[in-house]
Design brief:
The structure holds 2 protein chains of 2 kinds.
Chain A: H1 2-6, H2 12-17, H3 29-61, H4 64-70, H5 73-98, E1 111-118, E2 121-127, E3 133-138, E4 140-144, E5 149-155, E6 160-163, E7 171-173, E8 179-183, E9 189-195, E10 207-213, H6 215-224, H7 258-264, E11 294-295, E12 300-301, H8 304-317, H9 331-342
Parallel strand pairs in A: 1-5, 4-10
Antiparallel strand pairs in A: 1-2, 2-3, 5-8, 6-7, 6-9, 9-10, 11-12
Chain B: H1 18-40, H2 53-66, E1 96-97, E2 101-102, H3 105-113, H4 115-118, H5 131-142
Helix pairs in contact in B: 2-5, 3-5
Classes of the chains: A alpha+beta, B mainly alpha.
């Protein structure tokens, strides 16, 4: 019984938000043409392979008359020069026409989000028209449906690549450069994203989630993240983490202050929590960590249990990541910190 | 005769013929069938707890959805294998749940859903599971017949 269940992919990814993100399933205009081109290239590849296999078969088993033709000069002129010349030129022209829309200028007032790659997570900053940061988050992008969004791509260490296959092609995040990519989702929903450029040991565990909301929901969402804190999350907004139902709510009264433990244990040296003295900039911003869908850069569902597991021994989950395992904390302390972080929404 | 065909006179290059491939295939199949037969003989019928397969699969889905593996090594889940909590390998053979509760299906279902209530002081928090999902999870953990 177990053997059948263990076979195949049983990673946490599958259950959580569909890993790996489907690459041939466009959900917006900037992915449409990329996917059409991909299918055309796949089709061409199959056709050319079939022609080559047929030619090899003829060369080995075919009648002598065919063999002679295949080995003749005419075959080289037609099959080796004219055919690829015409087909590849046509494909190039068609491909450039098809993807021209990807580089068309977007409206001046299009929303801008700056995403910065780190080993191995994504820093996310929402910008206003002047380019000022209005909100800082991590490993999660929230977009309004049906609007082009300019993603400014940067990197703080090595080359990463930003890829939400449902919404666009890939674009590199290069240290010292600011690349721009336009994405757009035509339907509300969650779209998985990954780092698409090998960037070190935990490259494979460097992901994020893109959540597309209807415009009104998006406005509520961003407003909910700018108001004074703490606040209670609206359960109807897509992308919110469902709270633990009251039937299984935390039972023991917790005497320890998670906030104090967070500051005393050194968490604040790397993590920022707006409105507190925690102002570290090396690790993901935790100001809104309680409302995120995932932990550890798109790799774990976000609940009290996974939070405790991540803090307690993140090295067993994502070996080599920059956060040490806090295995010196007691059960009570881990729980207190996790509960406090849960409230940072 | 060499099992994979006639050896040439120089004795180095075995010649593959359809007959030799068929013979090799049949002998390998027989070997595999014998092994499978022997393995099947290991368990006397009825001596083991027989988990309901569908329930257990639902349990595995719930385990993945809430991310139990962030803290526990769980057979059937390749990654992650968290170490904040104990390994759940061979859970059907464990005496006490969390060193505290008799290992019964009822206790296990209650524990995975609301560990602090079942064992105060446990680092394991209440998990967002319904009662039914908790029973499914318990079923899966008991089905881990991995010895």
């Amino acid at each position: 019984m177990v053997s059948t269940m263990t076979s195949g992919s049983s990673d946490i990814f599958d259950a959580w938000w569909g890993w790996p993100p489907p690459v041939l399933d466009p959900a917006g205009p900037y992915a449409d043409s990329v996917v059409v081109l991909a299918w055309a290239l796949i089709g061409m590849g199959v056709a050319v392979t079939a022609i080559v296999v047929a030619a090899v078969y003829v060369a080995i088993k075919g009648p002598d008359r065919w063999k002679a033709k295949l080995g003749g000069e005419k075959a080289i002129w037609i099959g080796g020069i004219a055919f690829p010349g015409v087909v590849l030129t046509g494909l190039l022209v068609w491909g450039l026409t098809l993807t021209a829309s990807l580089t068309e200028p977007v409206p001046e007032d299009a929303m801008r989000i700056r995403v910065t790659g780190y080993m191995w997570w994504f820093d996310v900053e929402y910008l206003d028209e002047q380019g000022n940061v209005i909100m800082r988050d991590a490993n999660e992008l929230h977009l309004p449906v049906g609007e082009p969004v300019v993603v400014e791509l940067a990197s703080e260490d090595v080359i990463h690549s930003f890829w939400v296959p449902n919404l666009s092609g890939k674009e590199d995040m290069i240290p010292g450069r600011l690349n721009e990519l336009v994405i757009q989702a035509d339907g509300a929903g969650r779209y998985g994203g990954v780092c698409a450029e090998y960037c070190g040991g935990q490259h494979a565990l460097m992901g994020f989630v893109t959540v597309a909301h209807d415009r009104a929901d998006w406005n509520d969402w961003i407003a909910g993240r700018s108001r004074s804190r703490p606040r209670v999350a609206d359960q109807d907004v897509p992308g919110e983490v469902p709270a633990i139902t009251s039937a299984v709510a935390h039972s023991a009264t917790n005497a320890l202050s998670g906030r104090q433990l967070f500051m005393d244990s050194g968490c604040a040296a790397c993590h920022r929590v707006a409105g507190t003295e925690a102002n570290g900039l090396i690790g993901p911003d935790l100001t809104h960590v309680g409302s995120r869908l995932t932990l550890g850069a798109g790799i774990l569902p976000n609940n009290r249990g996974t939070m405790i597991g991540w803090i307690g021994d993140s090295q067993s989950i994502k070996p080599g990541n920059r956060m040490p395992s806090y295995d010196m904390l007691s059960a009570e302390e881990l729980e207190a910190i996790a509960i406090w972080l849960e409230q940072q929404r | 005769m060499h099992p994979f065909g006639n050896l040439r006179r120089d004795g180095l290059v075995p010649v593959l013929t359809w007959g030799s491939i068929l013979r090799a295939y049949l002998s390998i199949s027989l070997f595999v069938a014998l092994c499978a037969g022997l393995a099947a003989c290991k368990q006397p019928p009825g001596s083991r707890y027989g988990p309901d397969r569908e329930t257990a699969e639902r349990g595995l889905e719930a385990i993945e959805r809430v991310g139990c593996a962030a803290c526990h090594e769980i057979p059937g889940i390749d990654w992650p294998e968290g170490r904040t909590g104990p390994s759940l390998v061979g859970f059907d053979d464990i005496g006490l749940i969390a060193g505290a509760l008799p290992n019964t299906p009822e206790n296990l279902a209650a524990f995975v859903r609301n560990a602090p209530a079942a064992k105060p002081g446990s680092a394991m928090p209440a998990m967002p599971l319904s009662e039914e999902e908790a029973r499914d999870v318990a079923e899966y953990l008991y089905g881990l017949d991995d010895d």
